[in-house]
Predict the 3D structure of the following.
Amino acid sequence: MAHSNYSHSGCHAAFFVSCKDKNENLVAFEYDPEVVPTMITERATQLISDSGVTRYKLVADRWLVFDKAKEPYSYFPEGIYLERFTPDFNIEATVEADTAWYYSVKGLWRLKKNVHVENMKGEKFDSEELFWDERNEKVYSDAYIEIKQGVTEVKGYGFESNLSMTDYRIFRPHDGKLPFTEEQPDSLSADSLRIEDDVEPMVGGETQQAK
């Protein structure tokens, strides 16, 4: 079970109170929990742990919690920055995005627009959308993605990786620039990158064999 500690400059809970006949009574108020947040936090910094081990640091300008929604989620409309830690508290990946959603029951992050990830090898990943699936321990996308390390570039559609972004594959390579050397480069090597042009891009996190 995940636990968190956070600091913030402003936190607001949604509730409604009315005074009637000199008595303060709670008044029944119907609202849509899918669109009305139960809590809003401004300029938050939070550490997220799992089984007593700190795994993430989260920084966000605005954090809306919809924990009464049918599928509880958090929404970050003004951008998010994440650091993922190894068990010994070293940073193994950093993540930035203009917008993000976190679905707590599924343990799933949806990162949208100007998504930028960097792993501990210095490899950089840029896309317009990524899904970060904690429960199934994978990162995936159907969108266009670019991977860069030095002069090496790999581009394509459809992507899947482990959570540390060190073992990944592109399903539909589009274009790229690879240095020609007798030895494999330290990064973007066969050990970390698999380019597969015999499968269709992922649909809902699954892959399909090309017909």
About this structure: The two ends are 42 Å apart (CA to CA). Residues 13-20, 180-187, 198-211 have pLDDT under 50 and may be disordered. The chain has one domain: 2-209.
